[in-house]
Every structure is written in structure tokens, then in C-alpha cells.
Amino acid sequence: MNYFSKLIKLFSIYPILLFVHCTGTYYGIDGPDVIEREQAVTKINQALFLKSAACGFNDKNIVLLLNNYSVSPRKVLDGKYYSTKDIDTCVNNINFGSCESYLVPCRVSPKGFLDGGGILQGGF
Are 110 and 87 spatial neighbours (Cβ–Cβ below 8 Å)? Predict the structure, then answer.
């Protein structure tokens, strides 16, 4: 009976501990290896704005910037959490890319809770 009561306590406390650090509409756990959607969109938009200013504003980049700044971040990136490494790579590609290629959208996927990288970080 003692073993059974310890097992019940463990399984009743574990979910509480697991969800203590959950945030957002779409549940997940923050950590050093993930970044929330709003922060990721802000970093990407800032890089696009700076690169557009350096290369010169035109119809294409102005429309893209207006779209990214005016729509919900959910329409720009659809997941709640992203790998910090992926977002930093995207920002570096924008910053160091040529003036002809920086408007190509970054290919980043949402970071899942059990995906590689930071264990038990990301959305679920």
C-alpha cells in the first residue's frame, strides 16, 4: 500500500509541476532554446526594416513591411514557440543577404515540446 500511495502522489504532483511554467494561448514551456512568436516576429521585422533601409525602399519591401507590421503576429508565424537558433539564422540571412534575396521568406517551423534541441521546451 505504501508503494501505491507514493505512486499516486507522484502522478498527482507531476502534472502540476509540468504546467507551472506554461504560458500563452497555445500552451508551452519557455526556456533558453525557444523564443515566443511575438519576439520572433519582432526580430524578423526589425531585420527586414534595417535591410530595406540599407538597400533602399521600393514597392516590394514597403508592402511586405506594412503587411508584417499591420497583421497579427499569428499570420506571420503560426506557431507559439520557435527555436532561438532558427530565428537567429533567419535574421542573419536577412542581414547578410544581398539586396535582391533578403525578401525571400525564412523557412522556420514551430518548436514542439518533444522536438530536438532544448528538451521539454516549446509548444504542445
Answer: no
